[in-house]
TrEMBL record:
Domain of life: Bacteria
Name this polypeptide is given: P1 family peptidase
Alphabetical list of SUPFAM superfamilies matching this protein: DmpA/ArgJ-like
Gene3D superfamilies: L-amino peptidase D-ALA esterase/amidase (3.60.70.12)
Pfam families, per the entry: Peptidase_S58
Family: Belongs to the peptidase S58 family.
Length: 321
C-alpha cells in the first residue's frame, strides 16, 4: 500500500490557521464540488455543528466542508468563515436567491492553554479557507491541534502536549486518509505495540503513568475525570459511498480512536469523526472501514509525535529522545 496525503484525493483542499500565543486554531477540509458525508459522535461532551443533517434519513446528501477547531463551543464560529468563503466561490446548494454551503464542524476544548478569551472565529475560519488554496497543512502544534493536550485523567497539571496529525493509504485505486486533532482525556499509545507515547506525565521519573490504571485507582473516590478534552477527526475517501455507509464507516473509524487512545469516549470527551466521500471509485464499504481504522490510529500517533512542548507542557519528543 502507498502512503498518501488527504490532498492527494481529487477535489479536496485543506487549510489551517492559528494563534500560537493564544494557543488555539482551526483546520478546514473543503470539497467545493460537494461530498457525501456521515458522522459518529461517541464522546459524552461534544461541541458540534450541522451533525443532525448527516443522519441518513434527512434530505441533504452532500456537504462542502468540515471545520475542526479549538475554542470549545465558542470555536464553532470558525465555520462561519468557511460559509463566507464558499459562498464567495458560488459553492453550495442553489436556492435560486443564494448558494447555501453546508459546513459541518466540531470543536475541542483548549481554553486551559494560552488565552482563554481568544478562540477561533469567523475571521480565523476564513483565513484557514484561504490557506487551503495552497493546501497549507502542518502536523503537531498547528490548526485545531495548536492547543491540544492529552493525559488529563489526574488533572491538567500532569498533561502532555499533543497536536494534529494526518495519515493516508492508497491501494488498488482506493484512497483513504485521516486528519485528527488529538485532545484526549486519556493517554495516547502506539496503536501496534501499546507503548505509552504521551499522557499523564510523572515529572519525578520522566515517565508516563498508565491512564487506565489511574482511572481504576480513583473508583472508590468517585472522582469525575478532568473536564476539557475531545478528539475530533475526519476520514476522507475517493470511494463511492452513500450517507448510511459514510455514517457506518465513521463509527468503524472510532476503532482507530480505541486502538490509540486509552481510555477513550469518556464522559469528559466529545469524540467525533466525520467521513467525506468524493464518490470516484466503486469499493467495498467493509474494506474502507478497515483502512479508515488504520489511518485514523496512525494519524493519532503522528499527532503526538509531531507535537512540540508548549504552554508549560512536555511533549513526546522530550521523553522519547
Amino acid at each position: 500500500m502507498k502512503e498518501i496525503k488527504v490532498t492527494d484525493i481529487k477535489g479536496i483542499q485543506i487549510g489551517q490557521a492559528e494563534d500560537e500565543n493564544a494557543g488555539t486554531g482551526c483546520t478546514v477540509i473543503i470539497c467545493k464540488e460537494g461530498a457525501t458525508a456521515g458522522v459518529d459522535v461517541r464522546g459524552g461532551g461534544p461541541a458540534t455543528r450541522e451533525t443532525d443533517l448527516l443522519n441518513p434519513i434527512n434530505m441533504v446528501q452532500q456537504i462542502h466542508a468540515v471545520m475542526l477547531s479549538g475554542g470549545s463551543a465558542f470555536g464553532l464560529d470558525a465555520a462561519s468563515g468557511a460559509m463566507q468563503y464558499l459562498e464567495e466561490h458560488d459553492c453550495g446548494f442553489d436556492m435560486q436567491v443564494a448558494h447555501v454551503p453546508i459546513v459541518c464542524g466540531a470543536s475541542l476544548f483548549d481554553l486551559s492553554v494560552g488565552d482563554p478569551k481568544v478562540r477561533p472565529d469567523k475571521t480565523m475560519g476564513y483565513q484557514a479557507c484561504l490557506n487551503s488554496e495552497q493546501n497549507l497543512f502542518e502536523e503537531g502544534n498547528h490548526g485545531a491541534g495548536t492547543g491540544a493536550s492529552v493525559g488529563k485523567v489526574l488533572g491538567f497539571d500532569k498533561a502532555m502536549k499533543s497536536g494534529i496529525g494526518m495519515s493516508g493509504m492508497e491501494t488498488g485505486g482506493i484512497q483513504v486518509a485521516a486528519v485528527v486533532a488529538v485532545n484526549a482525556c486519556g493517554n495516547v499509545v502506539d496503536y501496534e505495540t501499546n507503548e505509552q507515547l504521551a499522557g499523564i506525565y510523572d515529572a519525578a521519573t520522566n515517565t508516563i503513568i498508565d491512564a487506565k490504571d489511574a482511572v481504576i485507582a480513583q473508583i472508590e473516590q468517585m472522582a469525575a475525570l478532568a473536564q476539557g478534552n475531545t478528539t475530533i477527526g475526519c476520514i476522507v475517501t475517493n470511494a463511492k459511498l452513500d450517507k448510511a455507509q459514510c455514517t457506518k464507516i465513521a463509527g468503524i473509524a472510532h476503532n482507530g480512536y480505541a486502538r490509540a487512545i486509552h481510555p477513550v469516549h469518556t464522559m469528559s470527551d466529545g469524540d467525533t469523526i466525520f467521513v467525506l466521500s468524493t464518490g470516484e471509485v466503486e469499493a467495498m464499504p467493509d474494506a474502507i472501514g478497515i483502512l479508515a481504522t488504520e489511518v485514523m490510529a496512525k494519524a493519532i500517533n503522528r499527532a503526538v509525535k509531531a507535537a512540540d512542548s508548549a504552554y508549560g507542557l512536555k511533549a513526546y519528543k522530550d521523553i522519547h529522545s
